[in-house]
Amino acid sequence: xxxxxxxxxxxxxxxxxxxxxxxxxxxxxxxxxxxxxxxxxxxxxxxxxxxxxxxxxxxxxxxxxxxxxxxxxxxxxxxxxxxxxxxxxxxxxxxxxxxxxxxxxxxxxxxxxxxxxxxxxxxxxxxxxxxxxxxxxxxxxxxxxxxxxxxxxxxxxxxxxxxxxxxxx
Length: 169
Hints:
By secondary structure, the protein is an alpha/beta fold. It has one domain (6-163): 3-Layer(aba) Sandwich (Rossmann fold), CATH 3.40.50.2300. Helices cover 36% and strands 13% of the residues. It contains 5 helices and 4 strands; from the N terminus they run βαβαβαβαα. It has helices spanning 18-29, 49-57, 89-92, 120-142, 151-163, and strands at residues 6-12, 34-40, 83-86, 104-107. It has a 4-stranded parallel beta sheet.
């Protein structure tokens, strides 16, 4: 019997950096147990080139990554979502669409690397820091024994993961 595949949506306002990174990371780290997506409330319309560069350096799949509106995932025919994680504070404060199936939600705030001013080296460093934090949280999430936990325990765990700064690891 094959194990169930969980659909996970990462949300951010622009869907050009953090949520894109998270989508690519989980699709790699999840080893087929998870299918990750990303979207934004006000999508930028393109993926940040620093995000693509970093993902390629990490040998993660970038084909098919695109900036999209979160309404795609609330529409008829959209994948059933099991988890929805906001990765930016702006998206966490917005009124989200009603997700069919009442997925488990949590806020995993990460500083916006696309907002960093300065040199390309400064921007790359910000993207690397966001990637590291997201990777750690996603690895913890992917290691949860979801089949053995009840809904309340799962919610508690995903909330705890979002509170980890990455510095306490």
